[in-house]
Amino acid sequence: MQIRRTVSMATMTSIAKFALAVSLLCCSSTLLAQTTAPRQVAKSAGARSSSSVPDLSGNWLIGPGSPSFDANDPAGKNAQQLPMTPWAREKFNAAKPPFGDRGTFDKPNDPVQEYCDPPGLTRLYGYPWQFTIVQTPAYVYILFEYYHEWRLVTMNQPHPKDVDSTWLGDSVGKYEGDALIIDTVGLNDKSWLDNVGHPHSDALHLIERIRRASHDLLQIDMTFDDPKAYTKSWTTQRTFKLSSDPMGETMCSLSENEDFQKNIMDRTVSGAPAK
Amino acid sequence: MEKRLFLASTLALVVLAAASPSFAHHGTAGYDMSKTITLTGTVAKYEWSNPHITLLLDAKDEKGQMQRWSLELSAPLLMKRFGWSSTTMKPGDQIVAEAHPSRNGAPVGISGTATFLLKFVVNGTELPHT
Q1: Which of A61, A72, B9, B19 is most buried, with most CB under 10 Å away?
Q2: A250 dihedral zone (left: phi>0; alpha: psi -120 to 50; beta)
Q3: Nearest Cα to A123, choosing from A95, A144, A96, A93?
Q4: Are A99 and A122 in contact (CB under 8 A)?
C-alpha cells in the first residue's frame, strides 16, 4: 500500500520533530512514502489512493474565517443565542473575550491571552495560522503552527475505558468514504470552543468529519454533543484553503504578551504613554 | 539634514469586507476602524515579537507636539508572509505609516492584522502591503 504524497523538505523540517518523535514514542509504523521538493511546499495531489485512504495532506489555512462557531452567527453579534444550559450561560456571561460584539481590550479574561493556556481542541481551528495533517496507518497527527500544538488521533481503536480529562482529550479516528472521522472525549472544561467565549464542559463529545471538498479546500464538519453545557447538540463547518507556504513558528510567551498588553491594549483603554 | 516631522491626519472611510473580519490574537474593539491616519516621523523601537509586532515612533500631533505612538502589526509569522522581516526597519529610520487610531484618542493604532496591512514607507522605500 502506498499513498502518493508530496511533502517538501521545508515542511518536513517543521514537523519532523513532532511527527517522527511522536511516531517513535507511540511505536507507530513509519511515515508513509514521501518525496522532497524545493522550499516552497508542493501542493499535494489530493487524489484517493486505491487503499481507500483519502489524502488529506497539505498545509491548510483558515479563510476567511469568523470568530464564532455558531453557524447562524459567525461574526459573534448574538453569541448568547446558542442553546446553553444555566451552567454554561454563567460561564459565558463571565467570559470577556477579545472578539465579537462583546469584544473588549479592557481586562479581557481570555485564558489564551491572559495565561497562554492551550486554545483547546476546536478553537485551534479559529486562528489565521496553518495546520498540517500527517496520516500514518496507526495514527493521524494534526500539527498546528499556533503555539506548536499537535493532536494525536489513534486510528481504528476504541477509546480507553478510563479517559483522564485533558486539554485535547482522547481522539480516535476512522475513514468513511472520502472523510476522516475523529471522535473525541475526555476533555477538561478549561478552554473555549471559539473566539467569542462559547464554553464547553468535560462531558463534551466532539465528532469531526474532515474531507477534501476539492483539491484546494479542506472541509471540517463538527458536531458538539455536550449535555452539561448545551440543551441540544449543534453543528458547525469550517473550511480551509491549501497553502503553498511552509509551516512556521508562532509561540505564546507570557512575557511578550505582557509587553503587548501594556504597550498597546492597555493604552487604548487608559491612554497611558508608551515607553 | 533638518528633520521635518509632521502629522498629517487624513480621514478616510474604510469599508471593511464583512466576510473578512480582522482577527488573530484579539479583535479590534479598541480601534476606530473607520478612520485611517498617516503618521510621519522617526522609528523609536521595532519589536519583532509575539503576539504582535509593536512599532514605536515619534511624530508630531496636529498641535505640533511631539508624541510617541505605538502601532500594532500582525504576528511575526504572518508579517513574514506579507514580505516583512525583523530587519525591515530600525530605530532612527524615517517612516511614514498609516494606522487606524484608538477610540480613546491615545496615540495608539493598528496597522495590520492577518487580513490587512496598511501602507508604510521607510527611508523612502514603500514596504509590501495589501
Answers
A1: A61
A2: beta
A3: A144
A4: no
Contact between residue A157 and residue A172 where contact means Cβ atoms under 8 Å apart: yes
Neighbours of A63 (CB within 10 A): 16
Picking from A19, A70, A104, the residue whose alpha carbon sits closest to that of residue A199 is A70
- Residue A69 Cα, gap to closest chain B Cα (Å): 14
Integer angstrom CA distances of residue A58 from A40, A52, A143, B60: 12, 18, 11, 48
A242 CB-near residues (< 8 Å, 6+ apart) = A43, A44, A58, A59, A60, A61, A215, A216, A217, A218
Q: What is the pTM of this model?
A: 0.78
Neighbours of B103 (CB within 10 A): 17
List B residues 72-91 in contact with A (Cβ-Cβ < 8 A). 72, 75-78, 80-81
Q: Indicate left, alpha or beta for A158 from its phi (over 0: left) and psi (-120 to 50: alpha).
A: beta
What single-letter amino acid sits at A208? Answer: E
Q: List CB contacts of A114: < 8 A, sequence separation 6 or more.
A: A108, A257
Q: What is the mean pLDDT of each run of 10 residues along chain A (275 residues)?
A: 38 44 39 38 45 92 83 91 97 89 80 90 91 97 94 98 95 98 97 95 98 97 98 96 94 86 75 61
Nearest to A267 among B19, B47, B108 (CB): B108
Q: How much is the ipTM here?
A: 0.70
